[in-house]
Fold:
Amino acid sequence: MEEAVIDRVQPSRQLTFGEAFDDRPRHRLFFGLWPDAHAAESLTRLMTQLRRDGIMLGKPVDPDRLHLTLHHLGDFVDQIPPSLLPTAQAAAATVRMTPFEVVFDRIGGTKGQFLLRSSDGSTALRQFRKTLGDALIKAGLRRWVEPAFTPHVTLSYDFGDAPEMTIEPIGWTVQEFILVESLLGKHQHLRQGHWPIQS
Structure:
C-alpha cells in the first residue's frame, strides 16, 4: 500500500539540550508486510466495531500503520548504523518467493496490546520469513534474526488482557515486503526500501 509509508527521509536537525541527554530510542528499523487496500478497510471496520462493542478499549492503530513485522533490526537512539541499511537492503534484494496468502481470524489482548492473529499455522508466511532471515544471516546480520515468530497485526497499543475470540477471517495476497524506519513516538514510518515478492 503506497499510503502506508512515506517514501522519503527527513533531514537531520540539531538536538535540543534535553534531547541530547535522552537515551530513549528514536529510530526502529524493521521488515514488514502491509495489508492491501481491501484488507486495510476491513481492519478499520473491525476496529470500529470492536470499540463500539466495548471489546477493544484502547485507541486503534492508525490505518496506514497497520502491519505485520517480519524481522526487527533494532532500536537506536541517534541514528541507524550507517552500514545496517545498505546491508539489509542488499539482502532483501536476493529474496525470491511466489506471492502467498495470509489470513487472520482471531483477536485478543495481552501485554498492553490488542492483537489480530491467525489460527491456520501461516506456513507460507513462516517460510517467507525464514527465507528473508536466511538472506539476512548470509549478509552478516545474524544478530538481528530472531528465531521465534508469532504472526500478528497490532490493532491497539494501550489495552490490557482480553480473552481471545474468533472473527470473520481477514486476509490478503502478499505481493511485496517493505523495510521501514519508524520514528518512535512520532507515529511516522519512513520507507527505506520495498521489494516485490517474485520467484
